[in-house]
């Protein structure tokens, strides 16, 4: 059973998501919160598989809530998905840097929403290639100013795989580009995530840019 926590300051939004999720046999909503502070407390209490967090909320917003969840060792297996009304707005990249596994726009189709929750519960990032490319475009226009993470521990093949992740390629495309099997591609990516302490694929995209592994000039 996939356990989901809803964190949104709009009760109507929460009730709509709850009705949709609770109608599924393999999904259960374990709690609701109206701000990030309350959401963090409920996450610690219920240890959900997925936390759906609105970006813009009073008291503690979704970015800070995501950051606190990602930093809590007790919540290591909790996957945060941020929700936004505005598509790829100025806050989405910051939320991914804070530790979110991906993001969803609130006007998403119900079937796509349910699929996304299941994808997040498996530990996969909600970053389709098209979304990753938009993130890259956003980064190129407004790069965040942070310290670069160390990439020296990666092997040459791991660096190549991470670079291709940052360009928005799927595991299958990466395998083709590197002339390896999809399983081997996934292994390279997983090892890179472990070495870089990245929670998921979304974090790899951020690290690749902040570490200088990928630059706009190489596009």
Automatic annotation (TrEMBL):
Organism the protein comes from: Dactylosporangium salmoneum
Protein name per Swiss-Prot or TrEMBL: Response regulator transcription factor
UniProt key word Cell inner membrane: no
Domain of life, source organism: Bacteria
Domain HTH luxR-type: 147-212
Annotated Pfam families: GerE, Response_reg
Domain Response regulatory per the UniProt entry, residue ranges: 3-121
PANTHER family given in the database record: TRANSCRIPTIONAL REGULATORY PROTEIN NARL-RELATED, TWO-COMPONENT RESPONSE REGULATOR
